[in-house]
Specification:
- The structure is a single chain.
- It is built from one helix and eleven strands, in the order βββαββββββββ.
- The chain is mainly beta.
- The chain has one domain: Metal Binding Protein, Guanine Nucleotide Exchange Factor, Chain A (Beta Complex), CATH 2.170.150.70.
- Strands 6-7-8-9-4-3-10-11 form an eight-stranded mixed sheet.
- This is DUF636 domain protein.
Length: about 140
């Protein structure tokens, strides 16, 4: 089974994902929440089964907040450098984690290429769709 190592910028937090590439799904999200959190034009995370994710070094900070829709959103990040590690909502708390794809050591590993884009109706006008990905267009806010 392939191992996908990663961590924060300062390397205080390290993690591993041990999963088959078929069990991973990397997606870009153009929603307002992802843009605001990442400070960029989209967020990009890799959905993984919870039992494949293990923090191997350090203790990430766990922050919980309402995401504006009534769902509690959890985020793990480094307490030293602030590097984002993972996020998830209460509905998938015991099943999945969404690891910020940039936190992996090698984003070129098989299984980490984006497979889809969400909230494409909110994509910045100067961005183009990623070729070969599914496009999910939700209604603008």
């Amino acid at each position: 089974m392939p191992t996908y190592p990663g961590g924060c910028y300062c390397r205080e937090i390290r993690f591993e994902v041990n999963a088959e590439s078929k069990d991973l799904r990397t997606s870009m999200c153009h929603c307002k929440n992802c843009k605001k959190f990442t400070g960029g034009p989209y967020g990009i995370t890799t959905r993984i089964p919870l039992d494949t994710f293990k923090v191997t070094q350090g203790t990430p900070t766990h922050h919980k907040a309402d995401n504006g829709s009534g769902t509690l959103l959890h985020r793990l990040f480094c307490p030293t450098c602030g590097g984002a590690i993972a996020e998830w909502g209460d509905p998938v708390d015991d099943k999945l984690r969404y690891v910020f794809t940039g936190a992996f050591d090698d984003m070129e590993q098989e299984g980490l290429k984006p497979q889809g884009e969400f909230f494409t109706s909110r994509r910045a006008s100067w961005l183009v769709p990623v070729e070969g990905t599914f496009q999910k267009r939700e209604i603008k806010e």
